[in-house]
Specification:
Blueprint lengths: L7 H16 L6 H13 L3 E4 L6 H11 E2 L2 E5 L6 H5 E6 L4 E6 L6 E5 L6 H4 L1 H8 L1 E4 L2 E4 L5 E6 L12 H4 L4 E3 L6 H10 L13 E2 H11 L6 H16 L3 E3 L3 H17 L7 H12 L4 E2 L7 H15 L5
Parallel strand pairs: 1-9, 1-10, 2-11, 3-6, 6-9
Antiparallel strand pairs: 4-5, 7-8, 12-13
C-alpha cells in the first residue's frame, strides 16, 4: 500500500488492528496505547515516565514488535558515549578512507531505556536525530530510516545517579505518558500470561513501514477548522498568561498539540478534529513543556497537570 493509496477505511482499520495487537500483551492501558499510536501517526516521539516494574520496557517492545521494521533497544548508562548511539567513523587501512559505522539509533523504532541515567552530553546526541531525522558526523549528514520513532523511559522518583532531562530535550517528545498500576483482574492475567515466558516475544507484526508512512501522510490531511484552531491557541495563550506558570507553552508546543489532535482524530476514525481531541491531549502534550512557579517541590508533575486541566475548563468550547 503506497502513501497515495491509503483510504480512510484502510487507515482506521490499520490503526484499530495495531491497537488490538499491542493490547494482547499490554493489559488495561487503552489510553496509553492510543496515545503512543498518536505519536507514531504524527511522526513524533514518546516519553514513558513511571515507577519501575509497571511495564514501560514491555510497552516499547510491544509497539516495536507490532511494526515490521528495524527495532533497537539502547540501555542508557552513565558511561554511554554519544558515538555509542549515533555511530562513529572508522579508518579502513585497506582503502585508506574513513567509513561511517551506524549506531543503534539507525532503526525505525528506538527504545531509549532509562534515558535519565546517562549524562547530558549523551542525552543531547538524540536531539538532532529526534528533531531532524538525521545524524551528523565529521561534517557528513546521514539520514535515519523512515519511519523513525524514539520511545524513551525514565523513573521520575529516583534521583541518585540520574541526570534530569533539560527542557530542550523534553520538548522533543510529543507526549509524556504514565502507565500506572493495572487493576486486580489485569494483574492476575499478567501472572498467567508470563508462566510460559515473555508474551511480547510471541507477538507478530501487523503493519510494515510502508503502511506506517501512508498512515502518517493521511494523518497530515486531517481537517482542523478555524474555530478549533483558535480554541487550541486560546489554551496555549492562557498558559502564557497564567500567574501560576513561570513558562507557558511555546509555538512548538502549539504545533505539537495540532499534530497530535490530527493523529487522535485518525485513531478515533475521523478525518476531522473535534474540541474533545484538544481537551484529551492538552495534559500529555503540554504538561512537560510548561514550568510552574513551585516546580522544585516533589508534587510538581501532578500540580502541573491539575493546573492544565483547570485552564482547559476555563476556555469556552467552540460550537
Amino acid at each position: 500500500m503506497s502513501e497515495q493509496l491509503a483510504t480512510d477505511t484502510e487507515v482506521y482499520a490499520l490503526a484499530a488492528q495495531l491497537e488490538a495487537n499491542i493490547s494482547q500483551v499490554v493489559l488495561g492501558r487503552t489510553d496509553a496505547i492510543r496515545l503512543c499510536i498518536v505519536a507514531l501517526l504524527a511522526g513524533e516521539h514518546v516519553l514513558l515516565e513511571d515507577v519501575p516494574g509497571v511495564g514501560k520496557t514491555l510497552f516499547g517492545k510491544a509497539i516495536a514488535k507490532s511494526v515490521n521494521g528495524q527495532f533497537c533497544r539502547i540501555q542508557f548508562t552513565p558511561d554511554l558515549l554519544p558515538g555509542d548511539i549515533t555511530g562513529t567513523n572508522v579508518y579502513r587501512q585497506a582503502s585508506g578512507e574513513f567509513e561511517f559505522i551506524q549506531g543503534p539509533v539507525f532503526a525505525n523504532i528506538v527504545l531509549a531505556d532509562e534515558i535519565n541515567r546517562t549524562t547530558p552530553r549523551t542525552q543531547s546526541a538524540l536531539l538532532e536525530a529526534m528533531s531532524d531525522g538525521q545524524v551528523s558526523s565529521d561534517a557528513e549528514t546521514h539520514n535515519l530510516p523512515q519511519p523513525f520513532m524514539v520511545i524513551a523511559t525514565q523513573n521520575p522518583f529516583e534521583f541518585e545517579g540520574t541526570y534530569p532531562l533539560p527542557e530542550s530535550q523534553l520538548d522533543r517528545f510529543l507526549l509524556r505518558i504514565s502507565l500506572g498500576y493495572p487493576n486486580r483482574d489485569e494483574e492476575l492475567q499478567v501472572l498467567d500470561d508470563h508462566r510460559a515466558g515473555e508474551p511480547v516475544e510471541r507477538l507478530q507484526p501487523v503493519l510494515d513501514c510502508e503502511q506506517i508512512l501512508a498512515m502518517q501522510n493521511h494523518t497530515r490531511q486531517v481537517r482542523i477548522t478555524e474555530p478549533i484552531r483558535h480554541y487550541l491557541l486560546d489554551l496555549v495563550q492562557l498558559t502564557r498568561e497564567s500567574d501560576e506558570l513561570h513558562v507557558g507553552a511555546s509555538t512548538r508546543g502549539a504545533l505539537c498539540l495540532y499534530r497530535a489532535a490530527q493523529a487522535l482524530a485518525t485513531v478515533n476514525g475521523r478525518d476531522y478534529v473535534v474540541p474533545d481531541d484538544i481537551k484529551h491531549l492538552a495534559v500529555p502534550v503540554l504538561a512537560h513543556r510548561v514550568i510552574t512557579k513551585g516546580y522544585m517541590h516533589s508534587g510538581h508533575r501532578k500540580a502541573t497537570e491539575s493546573l492544565l486541566e483547570r485552564l482547559v475548563d476555563q476556555i469556552p468550547v467552540p460550537a
